[in-house]
Amino acid sequence: MKKVMIRGITGRMGRETARTVLKMKGFQLIAGLSKRKRKKTLAEILQDSEVPELEIGVKLESEIESRKPDIMIDFTGPEGLLPALEKALKYKIDLIVGSTGLTPEEKSRLEELSRETGRNVFLIPNFALGAVLLMKFAREASRFFPRAEIIESHSEEKADAPSGTSLATAEGMEGARPNPGEDEISFSLPGVRGGNKEGVNIHSIRLPGIVARQEVVFGGEGQTLTLTHNSLSRKSFMPGVKLALEKIRGKRGFVYGLEELL
Ligand SMILES: NC(=O)c1ccc[n+]([C@@H]2O[C@H](COP(=O)([O-])OP(=O)(O)OC[C@H]3O[C@@H](n4cnc5c(N)ncnc54)[C@H](OP(=O)(O)O)[C@@H]3O)[C@@H](O)[C@H]2O)c1
User: Fold this and answer.
1) Which residue among 38, 47, 150, 203 is buried most deeply as judged by most CB within 10 Å?
2) Does the beta carbon of 158 sit less than 6 angstroms from any atom of ligand 1?
3) For 20-48, what is each residue's pLDDT tens digit?
């Protein structure tokens, strides 16, 4: 039985992940952390009396020392993320990191830490299978349609922009080329063309009511091709979370992206 701790258990992803772990055979949810101290137990937070009694902790190291998890799943956000992951690795815990917003330098450091400690670290910017397939199709399409832009939409509460998925999508589009006419455009509004990653402009929408949506628009002579993925609820991420939990039992080292686990 693998003991699981969820950092960010009171959040939208953390709550959905807790429900998922509680239903999985071979895994036991033994601890949960949030930023602010809660008087409510997990059963009260999930509004489910069947859920075992579990108090929510706020201190990472003392929770680890008292409950001794084997795996930590992190759905918090970019703030203070790397130091927290580093602490958990010191205790020889395997990590599944769903939080987005790590800088490329932080990502490299995490990979290094995984090597140094010999622990599995799965950094998964998007657990939705459809989003992973979209990235694969975008890579393929960019060979034939080198001009493309990405529009990514998320909830207004998302702490980072652009999304980790849009950056990874752009990075993977090896055939993509920048707009040759970009220097000649006169801009009356700064930032109107979005940000540029590997020749692909990324536009970020943040609005209430959206979970996660990504559109990659390719333009060619006399035609466009649009790939769209829509996460309609946080349930869309749970098959990916389950897969990561199943795979982390083996020896995998550092893994970036769900595609490496498929
Ligand atoms: N990989 C994926 O497929 C995927 C999918 C969706 C979202 N995400 C990412 O997952 C992360 C969480 O998203 P969300 O929508 O669930 O956010 P959310 O609803 O705002 O929840 C954030 C959670 O993290 C906790 N938290 C924040 N800082 C903390 C800290 N320093 N120590 C301990 N707990 C801390 C919060 O505690 P309090 O409640 O006490 O503030 C809360 O439980 C974001 O980075 C988001 O981009 C990833």
Assistant:
1) 150
2) yes
3) 999 999 999 999 999 999 999 999 999 99
pLDDT of residue 142: 97
**CA 126–ligand 1 middle distance (angstroms):** 14
The β-bridge partners of 28 are: 3
Q: What is the pTM of this model?
A: 0.89
DSSP 173-213: -TT----TTGGGPPPSSTTTT-EEETTEEEEEEE-TT--EE
| CA 158 to ligand 1 center in whole angstroms | 9
Q: Whose CA is nearest to atom 8 of ligand 1?
A: 99
Q: From atom 29 of ligand 1, which residue's Cα is the shortest distance away?
A: 35
Instruction: Please compute, for residue 231, the number of CA atoms within 13 A of its CA located in the half-sphere on the CB side.
Output: 28
**Is 3.30.559.10 the CATH number for 2-123+235-261?**
no
In the chain, where the domains are located: 2-123+235-261, 129-231
For the chain, which residues score pLDDT lower than 70? Answer: none
- Which residues are known to be catalytic? 154, 158
State the distance from the centre of ligand 1 to the C-alpha of 13, rounded, in angstroms: 7
CB 143 within 8 A of CB 221: no
Residues 6+ apart with CB under 8 A from 130: 229, 230, 231, 236
- Token look-up 């580093």 returns 86
129-231 under CATH 3.30.420.40, yes or no: no
Q: Name the strand (E) or helix (H) holding 245.
A: helix 238-247
Separation in Å, CA 208 to CA 15, 100, 158, 246: 19, 19, 10, 33
